[in-house]
Amino acid sequence: MCAANKLEVDAIFVYTKHGEMASLLSRNRPNPPIFAFTNENSTRMALNLQWEVVPIAFDLSDDMDANISRITDLMKAKGMVNAGDAILLVSDVIPACVTLAVYQSLKVVVIE
């Protein structure tokens, strides 16, 4: 069973450059929707073919806290998430300041 289902989150936000993590999550068929944020147009187009993945063009930065804040504000404004929703945040974006061995991250946040 997918961790997102066990955690009972309302949505999954994936920060991705090449779409690998969003594709892996899609294969597990989680109950919550998967929103994949990428700054690569080819990745966004390819993710349209993945099960239950909603690719969204977004200029990602190395500052994950800033990404989280900007994206949750955007998604709230679009009515895609609401205050009180639990969101699973997953990233396969490699920040410039870390090694390849430590780039994947997972975090659960509640939207304020």
UniProtKB/TrEMBL annotation:
Domain Pyruvate kinase C-terminal: start-end pairs: 3-92
Alphabetical list of Pfam families matching this protein: PK_C (PF02887)
Matching InterPro entries: Pyr_Knase, Pyrv_Knase_C, Pyrv_Knase_C_sf
The entry's keywords: Kinase, Pyruvate, Transferase
Top-level taxon: Eukaryota
Name of the featured protein: Pyruvate kinase
GO-annotated molecular function: kinase activity; magnesium ion binding; potassium ion binding; pyruvate kinase activity
Residues in the signal sequence: none
Lineage: Eukaryota, Viridiplantae, Streptophyta, Embryophyta, Tracheophyta
Organism (species): Cynara cardunculus var. scolymus (Globe artichoke)
